[in-house]
Amino acid sequence: MKLLSRLFGATAETPPMASPGEQSAAPVNEEHQRIEAIGQLPDGELLRALAGVALTKDQQERPSPLEERAAQARFAQLVDSGAVNLAGFSVEALAELAVQGSTSRLRQRAAEAVQDPAQLRELLKQVRAKDKNVYRILKQKLDALNAKDREAAAIVEEINSICTALDRHSHRVFDPLYSGVFEHHHHRWLELTTSPDAEQSRRAGEAIARCQTVITEHAEQVARQAQEQAAQLAARESQRLAHEVAAAEAEAKAETEARLREEAAA
After folding, report:
1. How far, in Å, CA of 22 to CA of 29, rounded?
2. Which residue has the higher pLDDT, 196 or 82?
3. Of 213 and 38, more confident
4. For the CA atoms of the chain, what is the radius of gyration?
5. Which DSSP state fits 174?
6. Strand, coil or helix: what is 63?
């Protein structure tokens, strides 16, 4: 079935022969009726095909310029009322509407639905000198996407910076600043608002584990040294006490021997 015949359906009976005047007026009246019918169409395959938004499988003819403009005006009306959601349209269809849409409002709505950065850049070139409102919308969307890209790149750079700092620190020898520096970078890692990828998580996890091992081993070394020092102090104290006892015993023995000699002499 031809595209335009779907507006009224197939004619069941052959109409009676018209007079010459009626014959000349018939095409005008028929086209007027079609345009009126197009103005009442709901969104769908037929309206989109007539408006040039999409082709139907059985489309065998193009509508007249008046019919196409009427279909585009009706489609723009439905888009403006919210009855048509352009978000589901193809990239090609959105580009066509943004550049060639029949109304400024339709072109703006199509521009608002474009999401692909490459398409935004291409459309900017096409509408730069044609439609300042559409150009402004596309430019704002592209600027916003570029800002998001820059923000995402900055986050990736920050995560990689933390991973590098942790990795570098994990290979250093312990010193008085070691724990403080580790805690600083570890805190930066824990405070990330964006989840790192698997490789970044692996790098940071391994570096954090190495840093904690360095700190633990140093703490164990300090504990061992403390124990050794305590043992040495205890040994020295024990030796001192032993010397004192021995000295006291020697003194007592000397005194006893002296007394015994005095008693023997008497």
Report:
1. 10
2. 196
3. 213
4. 46
5. P
6. coil
pLDDT digits (tens, 9 = 90+) for 224-238: 999 999 999 999 999
- Which are the contacts of 5, defined by CB distance < 8 A and separation ≥ 6? none
Contact predicate 198/218, CB 8 Å: no
Residue with the larger pLDDT of the pair 85 and 160: 160
Q: Which two tokens stand for residue 67?
A: 């019919």
The torsion of the CA quartet 223, 229, 232, 236, rounded to 10 degrees, works out to -140
Q: Please state, as a whole number, how many other Cβ atoms lie within 10 Å of the Cβ of residue 102.
A: 19
CB-CB contact of 165 with 147 (8 Å): no
In a 10 Å sphere around its CB, with 0-12 CB exposed, 13-18 middle and 19+ buried, how is residue 137 labelled? buried
Instruction: For residue 52, give the nearest of 18, 93, 111, 7 by alpha carbon.
Output: 93
Report pLDDT for 54.
66
Number of continuous H segments (helices) and E segments (strands) in the chain? 9, 0
The whole-angstrom separation of Cα 10 and Cα 20 is 24
Phi/psi region, residue 52 (left: phi>0; alpha: psi -120 to 50; beta: rest), is: left
Rounded-to-integer distance, Cα 38 and Cα 77, Å: 12
Count the Cβ atoms, other than its own, within 10 Å of residue 95. Answer: 20
User: pLDDT digits over 118-168, tens only?
Assistant: 999 999 999 988 889 999 999 999 999 999 999 999 999 999 999 999 999
Between CA 180 and CA 189, with CA 185 as vertex, the angle to 5 degrees is 140
